Amino acid sequence: MKNIQKYRRLKNLFLRQSYLDAWEDYMRSVRKNSYTQWDYIVLTASNEAQAEAFKCQIKYRQELGVLPKNTKFLVIPDPEGKRIGSGGATLQVLRVLSEQEGFFGNFQGKRILVIHSGGDSKRVPQYSVYGKLFSPVPRVLPDGRSSTLFDEFLIGMAGVPSRFKEGMLVLSGDVLLLFNPLQIDAQFSGAAAISMKSPVEIGKDHGVFLNDGTDHVQKFLHKQTVETLQNMGAVNNQGNVDLDTGAVLCSAEMLEALFSLIAENGEIQEDRYSQFVNERSRISFYGDFLYPLAKESTLEQFYLEQPEGEFCDELKECRTKIWEALHEFPMKLICLSPAEFIHFGTTGELLSLLTKEISDYEFLDWKPLVSVNREECSGAVHNSFIGDSVKVEEDCYIESSMLTGGTVVHKGAVVSMVTLEDIEVPENSVFHSVRLRENNEYVLRIYGVYDNPKKTLEENGTFLNGTMRQLLENAKVGVQDIWNNEEHTLWTAKIYPSALKKRDAQKASMVLLHIMDGTATEEEILNWKNQRRYSLQESFMLGDTTRFIEWSTELQNQIMVEKFLKRLFAGEYYIPALKIFGESELNERQFDILMEKVEHMTFSEKIRVLYAVSRSMKYQSAVFHEIAYDKVEKMCFDAIQKAVCLEDNCNEGDAYHIQRDKVRVTLPVRVNWGGGWTDTPPYCNEKGGVVLNAAILLKGERQIEVEVRKLEKLQVEFASLDFQAYGTAISAEEIQDCNNPYDSFALHKAALIACGIIPQHGTANLQDILKRLGGGIYISTRVCNVPKGSGLGTSSILAGAAVKAIGEFLGEDWPDNVLYQRVLNLEQIMSTGGGWQDQVGGLTPGIKYITTKPGMKQEIKVEHIELDEETKAELQERFALIYTGQRRLARNLLRYVVGGYIGGRLESIEALEEMKHLAVLMRYELEQGQIDEFAKLLNRHWEISKKLDAESTNTCIDQIFESCEDLIDGKFISGAGGGGFLQVILKKGVTKEHLKGRLRNVFQDSGVDVWESEFLW
């Protein structure tokens, strides 16, 4: 047992490495023109519709750039959809190559790969329409694509062309071979059968080659008992046989001999061609072309070999001519070991392979879940969307499907190509949907996993949980109601109703379940009888094969979107999350899906998706439906504005009346110490904010001033005294237009809206509003002697002063929390964003510890920090403001920092969290009178701020701090940084005059200077 396990382990290692090497060979064939490649890869198809499906698959891969460019791909259907056998299909391939590709019967110097994939897949009906060749293989390729049998064929055979000079390799489209091409010694004439050593227990169910002792085929042994194989000498000492893999190399000379059966002097002879390529003779490549090559084969025995179709005189005549043409060619036996043979046979075998046996192929990176939105799911799922409420029991297989709602897939069921919502799939049943070409209707094909569609009614063929005879009895129908003149098989039974809508087709076919378990009503049975019904065979022949790529791509888009959303909502940074979609990121359909989903998302989800989408579009320079990234970005920040702006506080105008003729409000500026940015939406709404700041006077003055006066004339007059700008509004619409950042009166207008005088939206008559108030309004604003971009919160404090002044003007004694909320609304109305710390810092004197809990409505709690007189004096003495001489850069800083947070940037999230902790510690140290410890915390906060936004500093700021490093214990920026004012805590004994002198010596007349400041206790 140990030796067997060791051998298996070594074999798996060998095959895994061969698998990896095959991928490298394949990529060379794709990228390098000089790499030896197939000249032609030919797929056979059962009919034109299936051929079209194959062509779509090839075109799809060509557009992706994953097929060898120097290889020509051909898809050749059986003529007129007739079942001509694999031998007839091979002759059809030779004809096309000769006539259309200019071979004229000369196959020298060409390397051709033929994959026989034109079967009707009766034993696996869910693959009959689109072809078993493109059925899924449960692994993701190294380039991120979900694999199929076709892809595995191309990869596995990429190294074979370099192993032989010319000829054709013929493969069976339902057998996956794993081997190392270096094992192939293709020095042969005639044909060479590729076999592999397999246990006799496997060999008895397949074909086996009997080696003549010189590595040539002595005899073909097809599905023989173990005893027979042993008696024939086909079993070696290890209990293995030479398994027929269906892979055969044919020399150019043999191809020409085959071609001579249907041609003469390079030209097709139609009479010969029709003799060999027809439904009656139905020549088999394996049974008819290869049998004469075995050493012990005889013509008499050849006549008796089981045909692909039926025995007939036409077949006997064909076999006579085949014998004459091929018998002299030998057949070499190329035995590969270690190697693996994986047969995609019946539905039951496929289900077992992909569920119970899949762990045997872990060394090939096979996985139960491939390209699925759910990370955990019972059974095996491939390229499918499985809703969170869907229940999937063990040992199920789901492929290319979308399951939503309360759908349940019971144990051992197979679901393929369906869209199910709130549907129950019974145990051991198959649900497979087909769209029909002729009328665009749908058919849901339902049958049992272990049903054999070839079995007849007379052979007691099974159907679902019973037999076909039970179906007839329970439905009270006769044979003539289900079949015409064909065999009475499940394959030909007309039992599946069609409908224009998928849902209706599902409902109609699911009556079969009720019929079989005896619960169908008479009405259900009558409706089923009266509907147009199709058989498995008819739906195969009439299936619309053109929609597979479209449906598969749609599923992949839905799956990728869902996986992206899960990662994004789990807190992953948006950049790696977007790579779910590949290096090129979003395409238009994925954009559409996301934008549709956004409409139904929570606030937190919506803003994150919109932000990530906008970043991806900017990265790609993508425009979808004439929508560029900036519009999506605006949608993101508009959503924040709308959620934060509590409109119920902006609609109280009917109750207002002017109470005072004139109001003048002056406020100080503020300096921020701990927790800056944590007051900014949406962070404060989701996590809560913590800020420590202080109100200060500059040069002994309150710098913020707002005046509101009553006017006799029913109009609104604005003045921005800083800019000497004056204006008048005579309509509400003019005031509602307050989003222009270049409008000198945007703040004035937004204040009137935030205070509830003017409605934010809708129509209103300004004169009526003013008449009701009792007069017109004059509003002026001024920021005295403070440079623009100072970082001292002047814009928000000015907004606070405006709201406070309007409230007093109206005789409203608004409490502080209402003032704060109205200012927050004002800034969101202006679309400038911003948090609440600035207005609190200016509206409320002293040092404040300001906190909020998570929530869209921010309940701002302000605690005044009580310091003893000694600490106040020391803080005043050691605190200094340095003006950098430069205005803070006009950058979209707010969107950058907020974007870092909602985008899931780990550094941003960690920085904001630590800033809150630092604010708490700063409060503690100040209350303890520990100014030195407070200074250390400022330094730490400065380092964290730079992590949050690297542009909060620049060369000038760094030089200023460096020039006075020996004079200070603590340093920090004011506001967002990047210019404006800096804050320092001086070392004990260092005076502000000393600092001032140092800066003037270094920076001279550049504007860098210490400004007089005083805390407003």
How would you portray this structure in words?
By secondary structure, this protein is of the alpha/beta class. Helix content is 38%, strand content 21%. It contains 36 helices and 44 strands. The strands form ten sheets. Strands 16, 17, 19, 20, 22, 23, 25, 26, 29 and 30 form a ten-stranded mixed beta sheet that branches. Strands 1, 2, 3, 6, 8, 9, 10, 11 and 14 form a nine-stranded mixed beta sheet that branches. It has a five-stranded mixed beta sheet with strand order 31-34-37-35-36. The mean pLDDT is 93.
Strand content: 15-25%
How many strand elements? 44
What value does the Rg take, in angstroms?
40 Å
What is the terminal-to-terminal distance?
A: 86 Å
- Estimate the helix proportion, in percent: 25-40%
Tell me, briefly, the overall form: elongated
Low-confidence stretches: none
Per DSSP, the total helix count is 36
List keywords for this structure.
1017 residues; alpha/beta; ten-stranded mixed sheet; nine-stranded mixed sheet
State the gist of this model:
This protein is α/β, with parallel strands linked by helices. It is 38% helix and 21% strand.
